[in-house]
Amino acid sequence: MGAEKKFSMRPRYSPEFKQSVVQKISTPGGPSAAQMAKKLGVHYTSVYGWVKDHANTSGMKKSKEWTPEAKLEAIAKTFSMSENELGEFLRSNGLHSNQIEEWKQEFYSAQKSAGRPKVDPELSELRAKEKELSKDLKRKDRALAEMSARVILLKKSRLLFGETEEDE
């Protein structure tokens, strides 16, 4: 039994091929990594790895490297750009298209007020009326309970002491 060489069953792809796949994925409106992997017959983890490697070697900046002011400026610049202009802007600044969308969502969520929302005037009026009616109902319940206690005491006193001539 001689020394046999084992060959890897994994296909090898050229850096140019990987670069072209990553460029197609990175274009605005382009396919996702999973779609591209299925189309090419490549395992999706390989494509995700290529995207990650390309992002690290192509000078793409991470979101954390951008200041809030720079993010806002990038959002403002890209707001009215066409797809081609947007693609060029993203490539020149080392960004992915999804980063701009994430920044927009962060900006929009930060703009929402953190305080209590304004209450509808009609709702506050109805709440005040309900509170007043509830208070009035409690007062009337106490008065009714007092009157029924008096009636019961009056009946018991008549049973114990009998009816007086004044009551008749």
Task: State Rg.
Answer: 39 Å
Range of strand content: under 5%
List the helices and strands in order.
HHHHHHH
Helix coverage percent: 55-70%
- C-alpha termini separation: 131 Å
Overall number of domains: 3
The assigned structural class equals mainly alpha
Uncertain runs: none
How would you characterize the largest beta sheet?
Answer: none
Mean pLDDT: 80
Number of strands: 0
> Can you count the helices?
7
Instruction: Report the principal-axis shape.
Output: elongated
Question: Can you offer a commentary on this structure?
Answer:
This protein is mainly α and 168 residues long. It folds into 3 domains: 12-58, Arc Repressor Mutant, subunit A; 63-110; 131-168. Helices cover 67% and strands 0% of the residues. It has 7 helices and no strands. It has helices at 15-26, 33-40, 44-57, 68-78, 83-93, 97-111, 121-161. α1 crosses α3, α2 (33-40) packs across α3 (44-57) and α4 crosses α6 (97-111). The longest helix has 41 residues, at 121-161. It is elongated and about 120 Å long. The relative contact order is 0.06. The mean pLDDT is 80.
